[in-house]
Amino acid sequence: MGQIKSILYSIIEPLTKPETYQALLSNLIMIIVYVVAAWIILRFVNKAIAQFFKIQNKGKSGNKKRSKTLISLVQNVVSYVVWFIVLTTILSKFGISVGGIIASAGVVGLAVGFGAQTVVKDIITGFFIIFENQFDVGDYVKISNSGSPVAEGTVKSIGLRSMRINTITGELTTLPNGSVGEITNYSVINGEAIVEIPVSISEDIDHVEEVLTTYFESIRSKYYLFISTPEVVGVNSITNNEIVLSVSAETIPGEGASGGRILRKEILKLFKLKEIKTPQPTMVQYDANQQK
Predict the structure, then answer these.
(1) Over the stretch 177-206, which tens digit does the pLDDT of each residue have?
(2) Contacts of residue 116, Cβ cutoff 8 Å, sequence gap at least 6
(3) Residue 218's Cα: distance from chain center in Å?
(4) Do 8 and 72 reside in the same domain of the chain?
């Protein structure tokens, strides 16, 4: 019974002294100061990192997406380092041996290593994705694993452990890097818009091609996604009531389908303006009494 009273007294007795609360308040103020200082430092460092890459790639439009990827990576690494320093500093101020914690973490790490294999795999895969430049922030990608689709959309961010992809239907998907298998990057090479335009068989095909060619010169300046001026490739097929023209244009990466939709809309408007006829269904009257 005496031992219990002694233990309770040793716990309660410091709470009755003003010095305890003074020390607690001092420590709380110290923690707040460290956290605020770390937050301010990170704000300045992150801006400096972004500005550095902006200056490095000034005028190099092809490196902008790569810069966004590296900015995100470097900022993440710096954040981890700063907060680790803050944490170890606070622990040392409370008299906790950081070296002992690290040594213990090494021993415990061996015990939990098998359970953390997924996290390690995510981090290693993240390094390979970033430094092999498999894709960058802003790229449109399709990710599969063992042939099964995982996600498809625009890459919003790439971290050491996970990435975020904005899917075509609007959802924001967060994927562990380790779940990435096969990658199809639609933003590496230029796209191509190819459309087939049916024209009435009664039209002068040379005149139609001339009208289209003249009009296409204004398309490239009107829509940013066209790299080359659209052109009439030629006659693709001929039937009894229509001629099908093939039109092609080079677009920026990943915009081939969008370019095709724009071409169809603009050509339809042009045909109506120039009164160029499109194929119309023909009706054949059958006379059952007609003798062969």
Answers:
(1) 888 888 888 777 788 888 999 999 888 889
(2) 109
(3) 32
(4) yes
